[in-house]
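User: quick one, fold this
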Amino acid sequence: MSIDSQPADDAFDVRPATADDGDELAALYANSPDTGDIGMAPRFKIDPYVAYTEIDPATDTHGIVAETRDGDLAGAGFVSFTDARVGGEIRPMAYLVGLAVHEEYRGRGLGKRLAAERVQYAEDHRGDDCVVFAQIQTGNEPSKAVAETWADGFPYQTVMVPMQPLDEAPRRDEYTVRPVTDAEHDTVVRETDEFYADAELYAPHTVDELRQRLAESPIGEPIADYFVVVSEGELVAGAGVINSHKLMWNKLETLPPELEDADELPPAFPESREIKPTGIADLWYAPGHEAAGEALIESIRAHPDVGNRIGIGIDPDGPVGRIVDTGGQTWDTYIAVRGLEDPMEETFVAPSI
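Assistant:
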């Protein structure tokens, strides 16, 4: 499939992002809220270039920026590389993230150009077999229109479930939740891969990657954790946790009129309109231990390190979707995909956080 990039205004130059772009990236993202049903703009506690490229030390991430003739950043986007199951086989995959176009320069084809540049970068570096995907918030018609220029379609939909922290987790005598030990790394990697063995967009893990994520951080303290659930001496559930609120937070800028005009915000949003996120990733549970998965989520929500909103991405038809109480509050997303001829409708999707 060719890319309909709709040439952007030639007042912009596109180049790779560098570590020198940090201050301008921070200003760009602050002035470029989403255009979906829920408009948010990220605010960074550290250099945004570092945040995007080092939040996951086991993933290779690169940025593209567009600047005006005066040298001001007008737009940016990042692309992360991994290998994942697509169409039932492991293939190279590129994930488009962090697209931002300054409000002053919207409507000039810049979003399409930044998407086309990242798709081309992905295929140049990972080959024509590389599958490219992006998650797009429901109601974000401009971003969906951009994706239609490069994607083959929108075969999957997932939801993000935002949850509030708990003062303490409900007592469950049959389960103990604790951090994973070094000796258990092999087990949790094996169990995770088995749990998601048929899931689309799942990136298989390695022990080295798990250890790298737990040990390395762009700040002076860990941002990643891994917790397990033990029952009668056996591991029966586990999940990774990313405390990205230590690197950045999201400012809630706009809401649909029915929410904006309500007497109070729904539970998905703090009254401060400052969303400080923690993500739960790749949760698994042993057969018959759905309650262990529930106990794990409750324990993470009660952990003192989490932000003011804990998010877990789910396919509602998948095994994790069956144990997550959405509370009627979800952020729905389309998944745009390029390079997948025959989507697998009979399986579930392992969404990225």
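User: anything notable?
Assistant: The longest strand covers residues 73-86.
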